[in-house]
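Narrative of activities, Objective 1.

The group set out to show that a structural description can be obtained from nothing but a protein's sequence at a throughput compatible with the screening campaign. Below is one input-output pair from the validation batch, recorded exactly as produced.
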Amino acid sequence: MSFDSAHNLYFLLLLPFLFFAHKKTGQYSHIFSDTMRGKIIKSTNQEKLKMFFLFAAIVCLIVALARPIIKNTLQNEKQPNLSFMVAFDISKSMLAKDVKPNRFEFAKTKMQTFLDLLKGEKVGIVGFSDVTYLVTPFSNDLMSVAYLIEHTKLDTSLTQGTDFLEMLHQTDKLFVDQKEKPLIIFSDGGDQKSFQKEIAFAKEHNITIFVYGIGTKRGSKIVGDDGIVQLDKSGNIVISSLSSRIKELALQTGGAYLEYSHNPKDLQIFLDVIVERFALDKKEEDVIIPNNEELFFIPLLFSLFFFGLSISGIRLRGES
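Output recorded for this entry:
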C-alpha cells in the first residue's frame, strides 16, 4: 500500500501540539467553542475517552486525505490520435429565425450533438464573424468544451459581417505543426459572392473543410434581441438566406457539404468521413492509465465513526 497524496500526512505533526495544549490547559478552551466543549466533556475520565476518539478521528481523516491506494498494473488504452477544429458563425445573420429557435442556437445544439458522437478525439472551437474568437484550444475534455459552447453568446454589437478568410488564418495557427487539418464550419455562408481566396488558402495550408449549412434558401429577416429588424443602407429589410456558394468551399478543398436537418444522426456522416479519411493513416496513441485501487473511504468511515463517538452521550461504567 502507498499514498497518492502523501504530503498530507505532514498534518499529523500538528497532533503533538494539540496534545500538549490540552495537557497545559486541562480543557480545550482555546481550541473548541463552548458548544463543542460542552458536547465532548462530561467528566474527567469521560473527557479523556472522548478526546481519544476525537484524536483518532483526526488521524483517520488525515490518512484519508493522503489517499491510500493499492498500486496495480498500469493499463494501456488506445485513444484516437485525431484532432480537428470546429468553427461556428456568430455574425448577426445567425439571428435569423428560419431555423428554430434561430440559426445560432440551432448551431450550438448541433455542436453539442456532435460532441456526443466523439470517442476520444481532440476538438478545438472558434467563433467567427468579422473577427475570430477562440472558444477553446484542442482538448478531449468534452464536458468542458460543451460547457463553453453552451455559454457562448452572440454579441451583436461586434458582429457586423462574416470574414471566412480571417477565420482560416486563425484556425491554421491553432493547428500548429499538424499536417492534416480537418475543419468543420457551422454557418449560413454569409453574403460573400466568391470563396476563391478562402479555397486557395485552404489548399495551400492543407485545410480540409466540412461545411454544415444552417438556414433556408427562402431566408428570413434578422431580428435582434431588442426586437429591432436589421435594415440595409437603403432602409430596406435585410433578408438573410443560406448561401449556395459556401458549398464550393467544402467540395473544392476535399471536404464535404451537408445542409441542416433535425435528424440527430446527420452529423454522424461528417464524423464517419473525417475518421475514415484522417484516422486510418494515424496510429492510435498509447495512453497509460494507472489502475490503482482507492482505499481512502476506509479511514474516512473510521474518522466519521470516531467523531460520532467523541460527540455522543457515551457514559463510562460507574458514571451517571
